[in-house]
Design goal:
heterotrimer; A alpha/beta (329); B mainly alpha (315); C mainly alpha (328); A: 329 residues; alpha/beta; Rossmann fold; nine-stranded mixed β-sheet; four-stranded antiparallel β-sheet; 10 helices; C: 328 residues; mainly alpha; MetI-like fold; 2 domains; 77% helix
């Protein structure tokens, strides 16, 4: 592809400093996201999804740090910017919808103030009437009545708060939006309407999305490509329409697919993946998934598999030995 | 209501660490390894030993005015003498006993009252809670020293024991408030609900299930109570409500004030008792600080928060 | 509005409770010391003073409940009795004369400690792990534990006695004329410095510690990270997002701090012979002037309760969740 990717992760590792030494939450991750593309990121709790999102945003706090690799947004290295450059770049080009809208909004400021703060921080010349007009426009876009502008977050329902967070995220029409489990805290009906809205706005503003979720069915429906994360690694990156090809994916992906409840004629089948996600401090040797893997061999316990380019996507599993080995995703 | 409750740093209702008893034990062992807690314990132990060993350590009768007045510190008189020729070191050592005892009585009594009021109100809810909470709110905002002075003006010539009890009877409100909110949050936890459903009596739930899960708050509250009682005792004694027959640290300050320590430049008379009160107070604060950091990890270190995010909750 | 009425209700209820406490206390004491005193003064005091004491201390033969309502009526109408040490002055006029000094000293010290302590707390929390962050908590712990009477003593010894920079006793110099004139005002200021510093020393540390830990908690909140991400300037981030929220619990704890500051002022006034309400209270108790003791306690209670009410109202201005009656 000749287009500049909106996001380019190269060999990215993020670690946390602990008394026992650095612990990797994101482990040698490669990824490119192109304009207008929606990419899903799926994994269990603790697999490193949010850490990756915060690392891309350069919002890592405390002991977390980028250990290796680069993060480029629209060709620019996020970690080479000065604080001032970063402040201007972030949100104008790349923004993020936080997981919990409840806690992402300042409880003592009105919705309007919080939207206007975003605008005035980036557009120095903007006049108050212009900012207010834009705030109204944004609320229209996320389908909230304008009268709620003067309200405080606690006066809004959970779904409305999440819409406000989305409105703030798209306020500057960024090229790329990270959505970190934007609907997890909401009930199913509200979830549905917010997802529809996200798709509608995305078609309208044409930004790329990295959609993080632990809900496979949601991601498969929304995204063109899906990355599956396990213990900090991308074990598979695959086009969503190939997901139905059972038997040709990473065993973990297949486990996740089987875990989606399927409503057949008269019964509901759910299958889980046996075992628990590994502790990042004491990762299993070889392929980190091998203790839970139904098709693991001796080799899996010893050697980390390379990434194979299969007809169904890029997969990090010994099962596909013989396919073409790639360095980069 | 929650918005109005005072949130002093020590109050940490619903801290995650209080859910399980296993974690609680961990907290205590962390506490005894925390450098600030150790520093606090050492300071406190020093003064407690001083108090216990007063009969052995005090070289002279603290009341006997048999020495040359207003001598500066020397080997003979480690802390010098008063204007009536009493040995200040002997007074100081015996004063440790009186002051710490009043502090413990006052702090302990206010803890017990606060605990009973707070737990009962928080557990029962409804109009009982409304009433008890209003009463503790009033006691919370009334300036307690003024109230103590008024009471003392009626009860003349009191002993340290009675002073400690009066302090305890007037100083329980803050504890009650903390225990109330803590009990309210614990009362909805699964293990309490389970105990209720299994037909356990209210009393057993309160003391067997809820109380053990508040142990770090009980400890914090006791330390605050003792600190408050000590300061109150020092104040009352300084104003002359403790009588001159005892020698608490507050009484030494009272005598120093009345005996013209200031104008005769006798710094050795008034510096030691106040410094001792401040040091014992600091030791309580150090231990509280350590307890806070252990039960509220965010205060200890912002790093830890992220770690736990990765380790157990959402990523 | 509902909030306002609720707090107003509590204010009235608590003032009533303080009055009732005042009524009950002397009657609860073994032998009612006031009664004994009353007997001593019979014939020595003019009848109107005796009459007011009668009412206040239950020497009247009327049933308790009648006495109680008479007493309440007197309190509400401002008829607080006559002091017999300062005879024939009314308790209320004595209070009016002494109270402003305390309010001035305590007020100035509290405003200073609140403002300085809050900013220091914000600053320390923002620049975490600096030297200040390591040293200051211990220093403030020590400062918080210093008894007021001792800090007054030490300050007085150093700056009044040893260095003679500042006057040692009283709230103004006796050889100035009270009024709005230069010498008097400068004498009030120079006499006020040490008392104000005493209260400030103990008060400021609580503000620093409290603000520091609230700030640390708030800085870890998602909305601060979210605001940082959306490009809000660091200044605005600290003050409008973090500090604004961190201050809320601080404001509610003023209520508790106030009580101890008032208590501290009583001790401070004794050391400095500063002619405030605490000094008057000490004089009243040592001369067993019970009408005055009761009046002073009541005024201290009323002032603190009213201030609490004002703080609650201020709080509701700052926290929309209280104002609009929403939950969290």
């Amino acid at each position: 592809m000749s287009q500049t990717p909106v996001l380019e992760l190269e060999n990215l590792s993020v670690a946390y400093d602990t008394p026992k030494g650095p612990v990797r939450a994101v482990n040698h991750v490669n990824m490119k996201i192109y304009p207008e593309e929606i990419v899903g990121l799926v994994g269990e709790s603790g697999s490193g999804k949010s850490t990756l999102a915060y690392a891309i945003m350069r919002l890592l706090k405390g002991s977390a740090f980028v250990q290796e690799g680069t993060i480029k947004v629209l060709g620019q290295d996020m970690y080479k910017m000065s604080p001032t450059e970063l402040r201007a770049f972030r949100w104008a080009k790349i923004s993020m919808v936080f997981q919990s809208a409840m806690s992402a909004l300042n409880p003592v400021m009105t919705v309007e103030q919080q939207i206007i703060d975003t605008l005035t921080s980036h557009r120095k010349g903007i006049t108050p009437p212009q900012a207010r007009a834009r705030a109204e426009e944004l609320l229209d876009l996320v389908r909230i009545d304008r009268k709620y502008l003067k309200n405080y977050p606690h006066q809004l329902s959970g779904g409305m708060r999440q819409r406000v967070v989305i409105a703030i995220a798209i306020a500057l029409e960024p090229a790329f939006v990270i959505m970190d489990e934007p609907t997890t805290a909401l009930d199913v009906v509200v979830q549905r309407s917010i997802l529809d809205q996200i798709q509608e706005i995305q078609r309208h503003i044409k930004f790329s999305v990295l959609f993080i979720s632990h809900d496979f069915s949601l991601v498969a429906e929304l995204a063109q490509r899906v990355a599956i994360m396990y213990a900090g690694r991308f074990v598979e990156v695959t086009p969503s329409q190939r997901l139905q090809e059972a038997g040709h994916h990473h065993p973990y992906t297949e486990g996740l697919l089987r875990a989606i409840p399927r409503l057949t004629a008269d019964e509901v089948t759910i299958e889980g993946i046996p075992g628990n996600p590994p502790d990042l401090v004491t990762l299993p040797s070889g392929c980190a998934f091998h203790p839970r893997c139904p098709v693991a061999t001796e080799e899996c316990k010893i050697a980390l598999p390379p990434i194979y380019d299969t007809p169904n996507g890029l997969i990090e599993c010994h099962r596909f030995a013989g396919e073409k080995v790639v360095q980069h995703v | 209501m929650s918005a109005q409750s005072p949130t002093l740093p020590s109050v940490n209702p619903g801290a995650p660490s209080m859910k399980k008893r296993k974690r609680r034990k961990g907290n205590w062992s962390k506490f005894f390894h925390h450098p600030r807690a150790i520093a606090g314990l050492i300071i406190l132990a020093f003064f407690v030993l001083l108090a216990i060993l007063a009969p052995v350590l005090a070289p002279y009768n603290p009341q006997a005015n048999i020495f040359i007045p207003l001598q500066p510190p020397s080997w003979q008189h480690l802390l010098g003498t008063t204007n009536t020729g009493q040995d200040i070191f002997s007074q100081f050592v015996w004063g440790a006993q009186t002051t710490l005892m009043v502090s413990l009585i006052g702090g302990g009594l206010s803890l017990i009252i606060g605990l009973l009021m707070g737990m009962y109100a928080g557990y029962r809810g409804g109009w009982i809670d409304g009433l008890l909470n209003s009463v503790s709110n009033i006691f919370l905002v009334l300036p307690s020293l003024a109230l103590l002075i008024v009471i003392e003006s009626y009860v003349k010539g009191t002993s340290p024991l009675i002073i400690g009890m009066i302090i305890g009877l007037t100083g329980w409100a803050f504890g009650a408030r903390v225990f109330r909110s803590q009990t309210m949050s614990l009362a909805n936890r699964d293990f309490v609900v389970a105990a209720k459903l299994s037909g356990m009596s209210d009393l057993r739930i309160m003391f067997g299930e809820i109380l053990p899960n508040m142990s770090s708050i009980v400890a914090t509250s006791l330390m605050y109570g003792c600190l408050g009682a000590m300061l109150a005792e020092t104040g009352l004694a300084f104003l002359g409500y403790e009588g001159m027959s005892t020698s608490s640290w507050g009484v030494i300050l009272y005598m120093a004030d009345g005996g013209g320590a200031m104008l005769s430049g006798a710094w050795w008379w008034f510096v030691p008792p106040g410094l001792a009160v401040a040091l014992v107070g600091t030791s309580f604060s150090l231990m509280n600080f350590a307890m806070d950091q252990i039960t509220n990890p965010r205060l200890a270190n912002s790093k830890r928060r992220r770690k736990s995010r990765v380790a157990n909750s959402g990523t | 509005m509902r909030y306002f009425l609720k707090r107003l209700g509590f204010l009235i209820f608590s003032i009533w409770a303080a009055m009732t406490l005042n009524f009950i206390l002397p009657r609860m004491m073994p032998g009612n010391p006031a009664l004994i005193l009353f007997g001593r003064f019979q014939g020595k005091l003019p009848p109107q003073a005796l009459k007011s004491m009668e009412l206040e201390f239950g020497f009247s033969h009327a049933p308790m409940i009648i006495q109680y309502f008479q007493y309440l009526g007197n309190m509400v109408t401002g008829n607080w009795g006559i002091s017999y040490t300062y005879f024939p002055l009314h308790v209320t006029s004595l209070i009016a004369q002494y109270l402003p000094w305390t309010i001035g000293a305590v007020g100035i010290a509290t405003v200073f400690s609140a403002v300085i302590g809050t900013f220091l707390g914000i600053w320390i929390a923002w620049r975490r792990n600096g030297i200040m962050d390591r040293v200051l908590p211990i220093v403030t712990m020590f400062m918080q534990s210093i008894p007021y009477n001792w800090s007054s003593f030490v300050l007085l010894y150093i700056f009044g006695f040893s260095l003679s920079w500042l006057p040692m006793y009283h709230s103004y110099s006796a050889n100035t004329t009270i009024g709005f004139n230069g010498p008097f005002i400068s004498s009030v200021i120079s006499h006020g410095i040490l008392p104000v510093v005493t209260i400030f020393i103990s008060g400021v540390s609580g503000w620093i510690i409290g603000m520091r830990s609230n700030m640390i908690n708030t800085l870890g909140e998602d909305y601060v990270t979210f605001a940082e991400a959306k490009g809000v300037s660091p200044r605005r981030l600290i003050f409008s997002y973090a500090a604004r929220n961190a201050m809320l619990p601080q404001i509610t704890s003023i209520a508790i701090v106030l009580g101890s500051v008032v208590g501290g002022s009583i001790l401070m006034e004794q050391v400095f012979s500063y002619q405030g309400i605490g000094f008057l209270l000490n004089n009243a108790t040592s001369s067993e002037d019970y009408p005055l003791v009761q009046g002073i306690f009541l005024i201290i209670a009323i002032v603190t309760l009213v201030l609490n009410f004002v703080i609650d109202m201020l709080y509701s201005r700052l926290d929309p969740r209280v104002r609009t009656g929403g939950a969290n």
